[in-house]
């Protein structure tokens, strides 16, 4: 308000000497600045009154509105800057979380691969051990079956030999004599098969 009054007084201070100077030159027609001091005075009073009315009722509200608009723009810019910084911070946070999630996922996949390899090795080892055990059991069973078959073959051979020998001798052996000959024959065949 003071600034506008000061501006108005400066305009008046410039206008009065100019008007007086123009009026003194003696121009030919009626003019606002023809040197008529009453006209100059009334013009200046009207101008000052308009300045006071505008200063009090128009420029104040206009300046306040402009000041409010400037404050609003300043606050909006500050708010936008603050929101941008928050958004950048959130973006950095999300980027870090995404990187961390990728790292964890890679670690989980790697751990799964290692576990799968361990399980595969364990399964292979178990299968190998089971196959070895089956082979050993089969060998034992084959050995037992072979021994049983050989013994049965010896028993049968001894019986056949005894029968043949009995026919040759034409004499029937008693049960004890028969068993003794079978045992001797088996032992003899066993010793021959070992050599």
Task: Give a written overview of the molecule.
- The chain has 195 residues and is mostly helical.
- It has 2 domains: 2-87, no CATH class; 143-194, no CATH class.
- The protein is 90% helix and 0% strand.
- The protein is built from 3 helices and no strands.
- It has helices at residues 2-24, 37-169, 175-194.
- α2 packs across α3.
- The longest helix has 133 residues, at 37-169.
- The chain is rod-shaped and about 190 Å long.
- The chain starts with a helix and ends with a helix.
Features:
about 200 residues, mainly alpha, about 90% helix, 2 domains
Give a short synopsis of this structure.
This protein is an all-alpha fold. Helix content is about 90%, strand content about 0%.
Distance between the termini: 138 Å
Shape from CA axes?
rod-shaped
Report the average pLDDT across residues: 80
Low-confidence stretches: none
Rg over alpha carbons: 66 Å
Largest sheet descriptor: none
Query: How many strands appear in the DSSP assignment?
Result: 0
Number of domains: 2
Helix content: over 70%
Structural class: mainly alpha
Strand portion, in percent?
A: under 5%
Helix segment count? 3
Quaternary state, please? single chain
Topology as a string of helices (H) and strands (E):
HHH
Write the layout of secondary structure elements.
Layout: H1 2-24, H2 37-169, H3 175-194
Helix pairs in contact: 1-2, 2-3
């Amino acid at each position: 308000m003071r600034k506008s009054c000061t501006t108005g007084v400066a305009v008046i201070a410039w206008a009065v000497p100019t008007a007086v100077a123009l009026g003194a030159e003696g121009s030919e027609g009626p003019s606002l600045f023809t040197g008529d001091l009453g006209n100059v005075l009334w013009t200046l009073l009207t101008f000052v009154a308009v300045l006071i009315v505008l200063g009090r009722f128009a420029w104040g509200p206009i300046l306040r509105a402009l000041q409010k608009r400037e404050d609003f723009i300043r606050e909006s810019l500050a708010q936008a800057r603050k929101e941008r910084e928050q958004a950048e911070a959130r973006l950095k946070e999300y980027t870090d979380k995404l990187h961390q999630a990728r790292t964890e996922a890679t670690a989980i996949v790697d751990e799964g691969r290692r576990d799968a390899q361990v399980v595969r090795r364990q399964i292979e080892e178990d299968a190998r051990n089971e196959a070895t055990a089956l082979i050993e059991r089969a060998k034992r069973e084959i050995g037992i079956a072979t021994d049983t078959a050989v013994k049965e073959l010896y028993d049968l051979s001894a019986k056949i030999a005894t029968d043949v020998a009995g026919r040759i001798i034409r004499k029937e052996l008693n049960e004890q004599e028969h068993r003794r000959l079978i045992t001797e024959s088996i032992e003899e065949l066993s010793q021959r098969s070992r050599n």
